[in-house]
Write a structure and sequence with these properties.
Blueprint (H helix, E strand, L loop, with lengths): L1 E3 L5 H5 L7 E3 L5 E9 L6 E9 L6 H5 L2 H4 L6 E7 L5 E3 L1 E4 L18 E5 L8 E8 L6 E6 L5 E4 L8 E2 L6 E8 L5 E14 L4 E16 L10 E8 H11 L6 E15 L1 H12 L19 E17 L1 H7 L12
Parallel strand pairs: 3-18, 12-18
Antiparallel strand pairs: 1-2, 3-4, 4-8, 5-6, 5-9, 7-8, 9-10, 11-13, 13-16, 14-15, 14-17, 17-18
Length: about 350
């Protein structure tokens, strides 16, 4: 038995710190591998489709460095997205991701070319899509389905405020709340913190932005607030917020700073993400199975076809009380926010 490592880069988009070894106990054969997260907020959606080999002679690491061994010839397959319940069918085009700004990281696998299948057709929230890979050698089609999460509704901080405000008080936590349908299960909360620096005479020196993910991989609750919506909350520790600022903004004395606002991003993934994590958890630790049963929702092969949606609340203002808290003690005070 040989163990063939199949990397799933989709995990870096939504799931941090997860990896799986797929154990393949069979004779030499071609194994289809596909993965994607499709979303209605992208101007283009991409699907990675590859093939893996279990070779009784050649090392899997050696094969992974040969681009022709990773990808199907362009004429060998057709790739489509079907909107379930309708006749709509989207044809995807093979492109080199490197030319689209999607550069494959250096590692085990060959990086050039970086063949992906692309569509710029709109993807609609709350619709179910079926991935269909047609193999032109007569083998059965490879399929998988996902339902796009609906629009998320942020309730705290309240979007009805003018301006919308968010505050951090020492020794307290700040709670964010939103609503999601059943197809939004696991979430990331991201902050894009914008601030400006000024000379002591008040002239602008520069604008800057920090990106922070205070809440990765939080699951929504099972509490229903309506027929279709579920409650979801995230608690952000004030100390974590202050520590992030201290770690990423240098101390100054010859200038001062002001917050310009925070763009709050709620990013939620589909049910397949939950099942993937459940499978990984069930097979980890001292009680985990020696032969890992890895989750895939493809009809054949390995990988995952899933979806996500994103809600952004722009220009949330940091309260004056937060500035007061920052200036109570060092090292926060030495950042010189006013």
């Amino acid at each position: 038995m040989k163990k063939l490592l199949l990397l799933l880069p989709f995990a870096a988009l939504l799931i941090q710190g997860c990896s799986n070894d797929f154990d393949i106990v069979t004779n030499w054969k071609e194994i289809p591998v596909a993965y994607a997260i499709i979303t209605p907020k992208n101007t283009a959606n991409y699907i990675r489709i590859e093939k893996a080999f279990l070779d009784p002679v050649t090392s899997a690491v050696q094969i992974a460095q040969i681009a022709d061994s990773l990808y199907y010839p362009e004429s060998a397959i057709g790739v489509f997205l079907e909107e379930v319940g309708t006749t709509k069918k989207i044809t995807l085009t093979r492109v080199d991701g490197n030319l689209d700004g999607i550069v494959r990281e250096d590692g085990i696998f060959a990086t050039q070319p970086n063949w992906l299948y692309k569509t710029t057709e709109p993807i609609l929230a709350e619709k179910t899509y079926r991935l269909r890979i047609i193999r032109n050698d007569g083998q059965p089609d490879i399929t998988a389905e996902t339902t796009i999460p609906g629009e998320f509704l942020i309730t705290t901080p309240s979007p009805s405020q003018s301006p919308v405000r968010m505050g951090f008080q020492r020794d307290k936590s700040t709670t964010l709340s939103w609503r999601t349908d059943e197809n939004g299960v696991y979430f990331n909360v991201r902050f894009h913190i914008r601030y400006s620096e000024f000379a002591l005479n008040g002239s602008l020196i520069k604008h800057d932005t920090l990106s922070w993910t205070p809440i990765p991989n939080i699951r929504r609750t099972d509490i229903k607030v309506s027929d279709k919506l579920y409650k979801s909350d995230a608690v952000i520790n004030t100390a974590a917020f202050f520590n992030f600022l201290v770690a990423n903004i240098p101390v100054i004395q010859d200038r001062f700073r002001k917050f310009d606002g925070v763009d709050l991003v709620i990013e939620g993934g589909g049910k397949e993400i939950e099942r993937y994590l459940e499978t990984a958890t069930a097979n980890s630790g001292v009680t985990g199975a020696e032969l890992v049963s890895s989750y895939t929702n493809l009809s054949e092969g390995f990988g995952i076809f899933t979806s996500k949606n994103t809600k952004t609340l722009l220009n949330v203002q940091i309260t004056s009380e937060t500035i007061t808290e920052l200036n109570k003690q060092s090292p926060e005070r030495d950042l010189n926010f006013q």
